[in-house]
Amino acid sequence: MKNIFNYRIARLLFLIIFILSNTFFVSAQNLTMGQLLEVRKKTLGDVEDYLTAKNWEFSAATEPSLGKMGKATFTFLKNFTSDRAQSFLTYYYSEVSSDTRINIQVHKKEKYTEYVNAIRAFGCKMISSKVENGQIVKVYRGATTTFEITSGTVENEYNEDSAIWTFFILSNDDYDINWGD
């Protein structure tokens, strides 16, 4: 009888630990491309609320100044012993215009592929590609939004090159004014 009781307690503890660990991983999520486009339309305060609810952590902020946009940076699944994270997101905003920009850096090929496939599914077309500073830079353009995708490498803590992808998301007008040819 005692063995049956111990078995049931062990099963119950395992079940509780399993539920708690899955609750964390279900509630902590990296963002889809659709969610990133939603974030770009939000105000700074709404961005912070939205990302915090999805278990992103605020990292740093800079106020806007004459000719420069303000920015707030958030991390996803940040390592507590280093500055490494699964993703970094920077939200750029202005006090003199409605322009906002998103820059998200990802380190997983699966997330890169998911984002590129979503951009293509939105009907965006690649309008340019080039090598710049040893990285591949591709620009996709949709009806209202431009996506600049940078593929590169960075040295990891083991002195090995590790892939890194950056998605810079902004309006077509903003891109044309500031980076257009």
Structure explained in plain terms:
- This protein is α+β, with helices and mostly antiparallel strands and 181 residues long.
- The chain has two domains: 1-30; 31-179, no CATH class.
- The chain is 36% helix and 36% strand.
- The protein contains five helices and eight strands.
- Strand 5 and strand 6 form a beta hairpin.
List the helices and strands and how they pair.
Elements: H1 2-27, H2 33-40, H3 44-53, E1 56-62, E2 70-76, E3 87-93, E4 100-106, H4 109-121, E5 125-132, E6 135-141, E7 145-155, E8 161-171, H5 172-179
Antiparallel strand pairs: 1-2, 2-3, 3-4, 4-8, 5-6, 6-7, 7-8
Radius of gyration over all CA atoms, rounded: 20 Å
Number of strands: 8
| Computed structural class | alpha+beta
Percent range for β-strand residues = 35-45%
Major sheet, described briefly?
A: 8 strands, antiparallel
Which word captures the global form? globular
SSE order:
HHHEEEEHEEEEH
End-to-end C-alpha gap: 80 Å
Give the overall pLDDT as a whole number. 84
For the biggest β-sheet, the strand order reads 1-2-3-4-8-7-6-5
Helix content class = 25-40%
Low-confidence stretches: 12-28
* Structural domain tally: 2
**SS element count, helices:** 5
